[in-house]
């Protein structure tokens, strides 16, 4: 009985330490500038960034997050012609559509398209994004298809009420490792027409 209590106590302490690590650890996050803050959302300006992307014929968060993540993680963990490890950044970006969906990892800011190693997986593309204004709405917990639909509808409604014109598809941004239980952060974003 004593051994069981000791083992359980050690496991609980390890879980608490691992969760504190996720809250404290500094992972590079894609930079942006907040332009305006509203009750339900904010407007941001994202500068250009370099991303590794994969497109797949799937239409759910679960399918895209499982297979897409494995392929992109393989690339940054050395699955490239240089066998180079590339640091993980946040957020992971997903555009989930009815037939063709995509997932992107933002590359660390020290990289540009021309100095990244070529992926071993030819379905992964390296590209530079365009500077853009987006509206962003944040939510916590674990994401799933239902939550993504709910918060997408909420952002769509708030933007319509504010008279802000959108273009392109709504996208999901995930910021946390699957085994991080506390302090989870997710966002829905969409490109907007904005003049400063």
Detailed description of the structure:
- With 196 residues, this protein is an alpha+beta fold.
- It has a single domain (28-192), classed as Regulatory factor, effector binding domain (Multidrug-efflux Transporter 1 Regulator Bmrr, Chain A).
- Helix content is 29%, strand content 29%.
- It is built from 3 helices and 9 strands; from the N terminus they run αβββαββββαββ.
- A 9-stranded antiparallel β-sheet has the order 1-2-7-9-8-4-5-3-6, covered by helices on one side.
- Strand 4 and strand 5 form a beta hairpin.
- The radius of gyration is 19 Å and the shape is globular.
- The chain starts with a helix and ends with a strand.
Radius of gyration: 19 Å
Structural class: alpha+beta
Helix content: 25-40%
CATH homology-level superfamily:
Regulatory factor, effector binding domain
Order of helices and strands: HEEEHEEEEHEE
The oligomerization state is single chain
Number of strands: 9
């Amino acid at each position: 009985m004593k051994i069981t209590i000791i083992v359980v106590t050690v496991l609980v302490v390890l879980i608490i330490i691992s969760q504190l690590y996720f809250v404290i650890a500094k992972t590079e996050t894609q930079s942006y500038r907040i332009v305006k803050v509203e009750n339900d959302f904010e407007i941001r300006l994202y500068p250009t960034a370099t991303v590794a992307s994969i497109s797949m014929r799937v239409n759910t968060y679960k399918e895209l997050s499982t297979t897409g993540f494995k392929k992109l993680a393989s690339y940054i963990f050395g699955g490239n012609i240089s066998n180079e490890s590339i640091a993980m950044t946040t957020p992971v970006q997903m555009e989930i559509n009815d037939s063709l969906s995509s997932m992107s990892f933002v590359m660390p800011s020290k990289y540009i398209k021309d100095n990244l190693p070529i992926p071993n997986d030819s379905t992964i593309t390296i590209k530079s994004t365009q500077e853009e204004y987006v509206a962003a709405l944040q939510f916590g917990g674990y994401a799933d298809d239902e939550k993504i639909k709910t918060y997408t509808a909420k952002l769509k409604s708030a933007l319509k009420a504010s008279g802000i014109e959108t273009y392109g598809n709504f996208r999901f941004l995930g910021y946390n490792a699957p085994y991080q239980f506390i302090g989870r952060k997710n966002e829905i974003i969409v490109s907007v027409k904005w003049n400063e």
